[in-house]
Amino acid sequence: MKFEHALVAGGGGFLGANLVKTLLRRGVAVTVFDNWSTGREVNFSNINDSRALTVITGDVSEGLPEVDADIVFNMACPASPPFYQADPLGTIRTCVMGTLNVLDWAHKRDVRVVHASTSEVYGDPLQHPQREDQWGNVNPIGPRACYDEGKRAAEAALFDHRRIHGTDARTMRIFNTYGPHMRPDDGRVVSNFIVQALKGETITIYGDGKQTRSFCYADDLIAGILALGESEKQIDRPVNLGNPDEFTIEELAHTVTELVGSNAGYTYLDMPVDDPVRRQPDISLAKELLDWEPVVPLRNGLKETIAYFKSAIASQT
Ligand code: NAD
Ligand code: UDP
After folding, report:
1. Alpha carbon nearest to ligand 1 atom 33, residue
2. Fewest beta carbons less than 10 Å away: which of 104, 153, 202, 263?
């Protein structure tokens, strides 16, 4: 890899843990900085050689540790709606203060920042699929705003840092991603459906299930994150990272029940406030700049994720 020591803020969470493990496998020393609000140390339990891994507990909104690293990945922020809405002011602080601290830390050391933004900056999108030049349609005062607007402010801070200080900061807009290292109680749709199906519970579909998402498998996304971190091109725009294969939530529910072999049925519950109706990334920019696109089809990724949750649930009991 083009870097030797990575600082991963939020490295104990779902995507962070997948990123950290890939970095370690590729010979990069890693410092994880995490407040463990949604992250879990168990994510690192089966690392064979942990000498290259340092774990520091702390909160990005209060500042980053004095460590040497030649790149920082800012993954710190709860991403599941129930978790980021449980402490909305904390979510805003993490997004805004945390990202400012990451940017200041990196500028002081002259190292690259790879920042995790989100498809939520497009809100309930007015155009379909979503391209990076769309400005978004976000309710700025609703229950999702702490995350959506927090992430939008973080992007604003990042691009001002670039303009004012010349900080080498890049931002990826991640679309719904799933895979191993998700918490069984994470609350997002893929983990909910799989855990419900494995436990023989009914699948909870919110609304009529006709809303869509485009699901990316974690390994694909991590390859995109690393390509963004390693690229020597001038990357001065946000880059969408996600899988453009779009599914309704009902289709996802049917696929999960078929793959798990469950037959407990479906319960239709109220649609959460401001839940986006459609979401699909246009990844032309990532293809052009990073030569990256996902390769894992939904069914294959779901099979891997079902196997992961089977063993995660078994180890809880
Ligand atoms: P996650 O909740 O599993 O992980 C977040 C990690 O950040 C956890 O380890 C948590 O303890 C840590 N954290 C939270 N607040 C912190 C703080 N103030 N200081 C230090 N650590 C803190 O979420 P995830 O799915 O792994 O998402 C990682 C990043 O990617 C987030 O920034 C999220 O917004 C972004 N993202 C994820 C997705 C997705 O589908 N997974 C989609 C869009 C964006
Ligand atoms: N969803 C659902 N049942 C669940 C969890 C989520 O139908 O048990 C729906 C949710 O309303 C949304 C979609 O699945 O339309 C994706 O939700 P998730 O929380 O995974 O991510 P986000 O809304 O942030 O895209």
Report:
1. 79
2. 263
Residues 6+ apart with CB under 8 A from 313: 184, 195, 198, 199
Q: Give the model confidence (pLDDT) of 183-198 as tens digits.
A: 999 999 999 999 999 9
What integer pLDDT is reported at residue 266 of this predicted model?
A: 98
- DSSP structure class, residue 56: E
Please report which ligand is nearest the Cα atom of 96.
1
Q: Which residue has the tokens 């496998």?
A: 25
- CA 312 to ligand 2 centroid distance, Å: 21
Predicted confidence (pLDDT) per residue in 5-19, tens digit: 999 999 999 999 999
pLDDT reading at 317 higher than 70? no
Per-residue confidence band for 315, with pLDDT thresholds at 50, 70 and 90: confident
d(CA 44, CA 200): 29
| Ligand 1 atom nearest to 84, measured from its CA | 2
Instruction: Tell me the catalytic residues.
Output: 147
CA atoms within 13 A on the CB side of 239: 29
CA atoms within 13 A on the CB side of 125: 22
104 lines ligand 2 (CB under 6 A): no
Q: What residues contact residue 66 under an 8 Å CB cut-off, 6+ apart?
A: none
**Ligand 2: centre distance to CA 61 (Å):** 27
Q: At what angle do helices 218-230 and 14-25 cross, to 10 degrees?
A: 60
